[in-house]
Amino acid sequence: LRWGMVLRLAYFVLVHEVPRALVINADHTGIMFTQVKGKTWITDEQAKAKDKKVARHGDKRQFTCLASTSASGDVLPHQLVVSGKTSGSLPKFGKFISSMSGIIIKKRGGKKAVPSFSFILESCVASVRNIGSFSVTCDHWSDNLTSQAYVKDIAVPYFRKMINSLRTTDASVCKPFGEQICILIIDCWWGWLDSSFRSWLKEKYPWIRLVFVPANCTPIAQPMDAGIIAKIKGKLRKLYGSWVCALTQEQLQSGTDPKDIKVPADVPSCKKNLFEWLSQVVDMLKDDKDGIVHCWEKTKLLRAWDRS
Prior knowledge:
Elements: H1 2-16, E1 23-32, H2 44-48, E2 62-70, E3 78-83, E4 96-106, E5 112-121, E6 131-137, H3 144-169, E7 182-186, H4 190-193, H5 195-204, E8 208-212, H6 218-221, H7 228-253, H8 267-286, H9 289-298
Parallel strand pairs: 1-7, 3-6, 7-8
Antiparallel strand pairs: 1-2, 2-3, 4-5, 5-6
Helix pairs in contact: 3-5, 7-8
């Protein structure tokens, strides 16, 4: 199945002369409000006894991050999706401008019509410059409308930027923006498979081709699942841990009794911190271009550029 996917990708690459920089893979992942992996901060005895006395242990609150990279090792801005009904559910970084909105039919737990909204910031905010789309849904899960927002606000600007950059160096490398075929590799999640999303994409951006990772093949055929998502979460946990340690030291030095040390876990604080840290992670990954390419190599997808 993976080899069939490689051949489909190779067909596009050969027929449309698609450079690696114009092939991207996007994947969703859940971001926990409390960045503690497994049972790191409790003893084995507490874990076995299901002891919940340690603050925030077992906290399941989360939101969704849609991350993406290119076959050339570039890291794109993230799309973040939180639970809510308006832009008021987003951290207060500035004025949000509506990018995409509508009513969708959720099928989980029975069919029901629910609103979905996506926003961009009116002006660049340094602390979240690598967050390209801010979305709000009823349950923090992505949907076909947030998928459209991702393409419009993140993928298309990236393709435009890369095509202009490539043509500045050598105009023969690719065709002009809007003519050059670009590729989005995605998995078989309903929001990508949805007919309304595919129809919208074909009408708005006919030069973007979709290549689907075969069902049940994401561990071996999707670059984001071959180590890139793990890199993102590892760096995020490190930033969270550094913040907790700094807060703890500050309170201890001011005379706070150890048992009275507090680490903010309210929703507004968690969202603001995590949005800013996820933006920082994009910059960190840009310094690990070889590592990103290595994850693509593990999936064998780079064979698509092997003319032999």
